[in-house]
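Fig. S4 source data, part A: sequence.
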Amino acid sequence: MLKKKKRETKEKANKRKKKSEREKKPINVRKIINIAFLVIIGVLAIVLIDLVCVLKFHVGPFFAIRTNVYEDGGTKVYYGLGYKVIKYNQEEGKKGTKVGFWTMPYTAIPTPVDILDLAIAYRNDPEATYKKYYDQYLQVTGSVYTVDNQKKVLTIRYIDPDGKYTLDVVASMYDDDVDLSVYSVGSTVSFVGSVNDYRDKTDTTPNQIWMRDCFMRE
């Protein structure tokens, strides 16, 4: 009986010792870092997949929450993990998708730009000018140079007297039903749209800025 009690006492002491050792065991910092690293990688993968789908394939976002639909034709706003997506769909207005941080504002008013300013800026530094205006929603006014009613493309041109700053702004219309034949060569027109390309002058064409999803303005 005495031996049994001693054995039980010894077993309890061993259990207390093991428990104490477990409590004193240091925190596995490496394990915590690895878990945190995997979480970060997972979040970045989700964000990257969403951004690629939106910007390259024009679908989604799939991992963002839609928070608002504007009564402007159906513009939708999405919030993701640190990013924001605005899919503009104004009636006879801004189209296309913008991606940025949560602070990115909804902006649907076009920025008026003088074609002469565009021509001079392009001549001085075409790459910087393109970066400045790329995907920007602009309103440009100028004289009609060419009209292609079948392809729904209208071109205005600024002609520099010395031939140094001549510039074409090529507007590709959003609406396939618009009748561009009513705009005659030499008449003054105004349109809104987003800049999506530029082309340096060649032997037969001047510098060109291309705009997409355009609408004519009176």
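Fig. S4 source data, part B ends here. The chain has a mean pLDDT of 86.
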